[in-house]
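Now for a sample.
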Amino acid sequence: MTDERQQSRSSPSVSSIPLNRRRFFTLSAAAGVGVFGASALSACSPGSGSGLAGSANTIRAAIAGEPDQLDPHKTSAYFSFEVLENVFDTLVEPNEKLEMVPALAQSWQVNPEETQYVFTLRPNVRWHNGEPLTASDVVYSYRRIIDGELSASWRFDNVATITALDDAHVVITTRTPSPNLLSSIGGFRGLAIVNKRNVESGQILTRPIGTGPFSFESRSPATSIVLKANPGHWSGGPHVDGVAFSFISQGTTAVSSLRSGEVDWTDAIPAQQLRILDSDDEINVGTVTANDYWYVAMNFARKPFDDRRVRQAVAYAIDRKSIAQVVGYGTATPNQLAIPKTSPWFTPYDRFTVGLDRAAAVDKSRSLLRDAGHSSLSMGLMVSTEYPETVTAAQVIASNLADAGIKVTIEQLDFGVWLDRQSAGQFDSLLMGWLGNIDPDDYYYAQHHSAGTSNSQKYSNPEVDRLLDAGRTELDVGRRKQIYADVSSRIADDVSYLYLYNPSATQAFSKSVRDYTVRADKAVRFRNARLDRGGAS
């Protein structure tokens, strides 16, 4: 998927990056990518390793692929963020309810117009190399993103100035009222506060230095990354010695390793194995509806997809329930908009299914095609082999559309090629997902505003632009909700994106792992986790 994902083409991610590669998220860890197998376990298994990785008080976590790089501003890969979430901090951060709460900033003040935020940093925060954190580090981090036009730079579109009043205070001034500023700087992992010396030396790529609850300890390419507890962290320090991440692309291998006790935690879980894990008395399985969504986008710059009737014909013919069932084995939730029901910003919408059984939906699709002058249609659908879910979903979609006389040719591409083709507009349609959304602006602006940085489908609707601009500055929550209810329905009516479903965030862990929470934003945080292995504290 896209996670406000990246400019680098080496790994998929999850962000608002489609167009300039900034926001694709690494699909479900259950699918995984790469060729790493069970041998990856040896580096992280207690007893088989030495030092921190072999400590009985180190969490052994299996993720489905290797981070592409360790610079949080330049990666967009979910595998990278799973690790880096524990190494770096942000100025503010979302709690488990996805409400913004203090992180490196212990407090902030906002002027009545909500155009100026003054953040007060926590005292005595230090980088992992011992240097003190100051307000200039925050300014440097944000200016690096903005000036370098890095993947998260769009989140600062409304920011006029960022200054350090002194070592303890940062002032962010916006051009217009900014009700989503806190979620913009805290809700996405690419907004980490980085160390200037670490960046300028180039060492951030191989040995990142953050202020987070864990510091980077070691890396074995294609095998593992080990993090060490930072006892001086402002949260009070972790309760474990460290976290050893192993890379296991085969979900069945990760699940077997969890059940045998070789690893303590994994999100590399094939959906079809959830029942097995649920029945294991030694395993906890956490599943929540994620803030992610999967979608199909058709290219407005290519005929006949510039015709709204054709796009709607495709939307009527697709059976979202069957797609969600096949891909998620009952864990995914069909949705015709982006925002899931669990969000306070959810809007009910069922235009493409209301009052229609499958046969009636297909008839409606054929009728729209005839109105547009087509008795049949051919359509390419671009997916990535690095995200098996896209391939599986595309096969169901092809079968669905065949019923309406639409022949689909599935193009399975390496993700780097997929990104190049998407950026160049060389596609009829594509299938992908987005991750990392919190504020409604995250779900819609970059993707559907005519000037949006991730609007690769080339959608343009002046009223949608007006509403999206208004949503960015409206301070009244009730009016803001109405704006997004209106604009999201217009986007769906126009089929700028053809929304498919919201997936689940599913993670499994040994019952020896305590105080760990599965989150809707898929943030993997071991800050508060404990191990009760009989000898571990």
